Amino acid sequence: MRPVKKIVISLALVVPLAVLGFAHVAKTAPVITRFTPQAKWCGNASIVFFPGGPAGGVFANNVYNGARQAELDLGPKVRYVFSDWDPQKMTSQFKEVAATKPDGIAVMGHPGDDAFYPLIKDAEAKGIIVTSQNTTLPRAEKEFASRGFGYVGQDLYGSGFALGTEAAKRAGLRSGDRAMVWGLLSQPTRGLRTKGVVDALKKLGVTVDYLEIDAATNADPPAGTPTFTGYATSHRDVKLVVTDHGGLTATLETYLKSAGKKPGEVFGAGFDLSPATLAGIRGGWINLVIDQQPWLQGYLPILQICLTKLYGYAGLHIDTGGGFADKGNVEFLAPLVEKEIR
């Protein structure tokens, strides 16, 4: 039995020594650093933020909610400017807010580089930090990245192509089948996402009927109901509808019902989650959605401007990605969708 006694004695000695060792670690001196973390460390900054759409609108609310959280966390004074997704309104509003000389402006890039670049260049010359979200402004980003011009949003063409490819696959489309794409090809950069969808479908031999979203529907998606009804009744063989707009995707159930369709009769696909889109997925009206995490498109541009103003950081290019949501996985996200976070 002697070996057993030796083992017991050994454990009795080891345990106190281990405890003493941990106690020694706990008593080590704190890390020496010259940086002192602060709450609301961006409290002296003034920022103008563009959520993009109408106040209270689909998608714009998620972006706005992210920006508001950043405002609360970081402490800057933020003014919010809503634009009804109208590129001309965005540029005119930019001129107005730049004249007030805020520390920074976070813009939606829908007007494109040709329209925005001269305005951004002028603002930068006045010492205003400018950054972008949702839609890229490649020329401005390339020139002013060192001054804090970044981008937070999707790879527009890539996400469109991915959705078109996946939607066609799940809908079981074959060469010669008909699909409708309702998008924004007329907008220089924003239209790349629509182009991605169209290119993906055409690559598969699908017949694509393209409809441009008019200004009224862009600002108020239910206004497009007569347009959709007219199309669907004259193209009864349509098998897939892709809406390249969060607000229109949220209205797909209304559109399909107005055209006399039943859930699942036409495969519905689009972009962005919202409470109405969630209801449409649950009801079988919307079959596939790609989520670009718009809350981040609100939070991170505010952070970008603060990082540049206080610490001189260069612009960050952040792809908010795009996972697919459908009836099989959307319940995981549902609580966040209902709060307009996802």
Could you describe the 3D structure shown?
With 342 residues, the protein is an alpha/beta fold. It folds into 2 domains: 46-154 and 293-321, Response regulator (Rossmann fold, 3-Layer(aba) Sandwich), CATH 3.40.50; 156-291, Response regulator (Rossmann fold, 3-Layer(aba) Sandwich), CATH 3.40.50. 48% of the residues lie in helices and 16% in strands. It has helices at residues 2-26, 60-74, 87-98, 113-125, 138-144, 156-171, 191-203, 215-219, 225-234, 246-250, 252-258, 275-282, 294-311, 330-338; strands at 46-49, 77-80, 104-108, 129-133, 151-153, 178-183, 207-212, 238-243, 267-271, 288-291, 317-319, 323-325. A 6-stranded parallel sheet has the order 2-1-3-4-5-11, with helices on both faces. The protein has a 6-stranded mixed sheet with strand order 7-6-8-9-10-12. It comes from Candidatus Segetimicrobium genomatis. Residues 1-28 form the signal peptide. It holds the Pfam family Peripla_BP_4.
Short summary:
With 342 residues, the chain is of the alpha/beta class.
Give the mean pLDDT: 93
The biggest sheet, with number of strands, parallel, antiparallel or mixed sense and barrel status, is: 6 strands, parallel
What percent strand?
Answer: 15-25%
What is the number of strand segments? 12
Count of DSSP-assigned helices: 14
Task: Note the gap between the termini.
Answer: 66 Å
The CATH class of the largest domain = Alpha Beta
* Strand-pairing-aware structural class: alpha/beta
In percent, how helical is the residue content?
40-55%
Q: pLDDT under 50 segments (min length 5)?
A: 1-15
**CATH architecture annotation of the largest domain:** 3-Layer(aba) Sandwich
